[in-house]
Design a protein that fits this description.
- The structure is a single chain.
- This protein is mainly beta.
- It contains one helix and 31 strands.
- The chain is globular, with a radius of gyration of 22 Å.
Length: 432
């Protein structure tokens, strides 16, 4: 099998060593579940996409569940004080806090104040946690583009799939299907559907071509997982029905596309902790089809040999032609430890079907810019924005409030920049 390489820019920053600084680790997320060792309380948090339905949160948990925030402060603190928006602190041990979230809503991450002999230090990341309601989940840490994740397509040639195709789409290498393994934390809740994201909408396909999406209840054996235990729900989507932002739907990358499947009968998740969602149906002829799925191509994940041999330690898997089960993780096929953007849409049991709908991109004001004096003025929907240079490095971030945000041009070196908001909208501008 051919090798391919992904080059991603990175930025190293040095600001000195802080001997006394408050900090904490985020709740354990349900991915690479075979590597999770901290199980008190049982992890329940899942990563989410930047889809507006997630209200700007990067993690989601069911209502009436608890998560742990593990202190990682430097120095030798003498006391810790936690405060949690929307949560009840069940246990604040000498360093850590277990917080229970009983009410549906979207909340800021907790604030930690640490006492030192020389004073105090506070830490509260600019992150949100969504509790209950409807969420679109994923297996990528979608906090910061090109830092915690990067979405792309793994092509097997430099001609963007025209010769041998890609991992997760049209290919000549006998890859017949791919899928994601999810551990669910919902005892009362539903799987309402699945969104599968593509780098672009296909431009060519054979007449009648369809993509199949299925959700399976996985079975756990003594030494392995049988991913295709029995199908819970699924169906086919015509290539013609693949949507883009021009159709008023959200997509995570510019010029991207999405297959939206909503189940006629939502899957009740009680007793169904292990769910596998697979996608197949593409052809083996890149000359007549260009179906290419997105995946996290920079998961920043290393794995010990003992974990790499454990199926539960992987997220995404491959089925070859002639096989009936998903026997191999994507790392066998050049996918590193990345994860496909096969994203389940779940709903807490407290939320009636249809009561929370996806925000239509048409309802979000377009992101724009103008040069005003010595500043770049961004305009659009209120919320967080980030500015990247042409090499993909994050240069600054801030908030659009009241419809605008002002960036002094002097803070940026001359060049081309891209601003991106919390809804995935982008605008390009030049600083001279």
């Amino acid at each position: 099998m051919k090798k391919f390489y992904i080059a991603l820019p990175f930025l190293l920053c040095f600001s000195g060593i802080l001997a006394q600084e408050a900090s904490y680790e985020h709740p354990t997320a349900l991915r690479y579940v075979g590597t999770i060792t901290d199980t008190d309380p049982t992890p329940v948090a899942s990563f989410t996409t930047q889809n507006p339905v997630n209200n700007g949160a990067f993690m989601w948990i069911p209502a009436e569940k608890s998560v742990k925030y593990i202190d990682s402060s430097t120095g030798v603190p003498s006391a810790w004080n936690w405060s949690a928006d929307g949560g009840v602190i069940e246990d604040a041990s000498s360093r850590n806090a277990i917080v229970r979230y009983n009410s549906v809503g979207t909340y800021d991450f907790p604030k930690l104040t640490v006492d030192y002999p020389s004073g105090t230090s506070e830490y509260q990341p600019d992150l949100k946690l969504k509790v209950g309601g409807v969420a679109e989940l994923c297996l990528a840490d979608c906090r910061e583009w090109a830092v915690t994740y990067g979405l792309g397509t793994n092509f097997y040639d430099q001609d963007f799939g025209a010769t041998n195709g890609c991992l997760g789409g049209t290919n000549k290498l006998d890859i017949a299907g791919v899928g994601n393994f999810y551990m669910m934390s919902l005892e009362e809740g539903f799987l309402d559907g699945v969104n599968v994201y593509l780098n672009t909408k296909p431009t060519r396909w054979k007449e009648g071509a369809k993509i199949r999406i299925r959700a399976w209840m996985s079975l756990l054996g003594e030494n392995d997982i049988q991913f295709t235990g029995y199908p819970l729900e699924g169906g086919y989507v015509d290539f013609e029905d693949i949507k883009t932002a021009d159709d008023g739907v959200w997509v995570p990358v510019k010029n991207g596309a999405v297959i939206q499947m909503r189940f006629d009968n939502p899957v009740e998740l009680y007793g169904k902790q292990l769910i596998f969602i697979d996608v197949d149906g593409w052809s083996n002829d890149p000359a007549t089809e260009d179906f290419h799925m997105l995946m996290d191509v920079m998961p920043n994940r290393t794995m010990a040999p003992e974990d790499a041999s454990n199926k539960l330690a992987h997220n995404s898997f491959v089925r070859l032609s002639g096989e009936s089960d998903y026997l191999r993780p994507v790392s066998y096929f050049g996918g590193n430890y990345g994860s496909f953007m096969i994203c389940p849409v779940v709903r807490g049991g407290e939320t009636p079907v249809g009561s929370v709908s996806q925000i239509d991109v048409a309802d979000i004001p377009a992101m724009r810019y103008r040069m005003e004096g010595g500043a770049v003025v961004l305009s659009g929907a209120d919320g967080r924005f980030e500015v990247f240079n042409i090499g993909g490095m994050l240069c600054l971030s801030g908030e659009i409030a009241g419809g605008t945000a002002e960036i002094p041009a002097s803070t940026l070196v001359p060049g081309i920049y891209v601003a991106r908001n919390a809804f995935g909208q982008t605008v390009k501008f030049v600083v001279k």
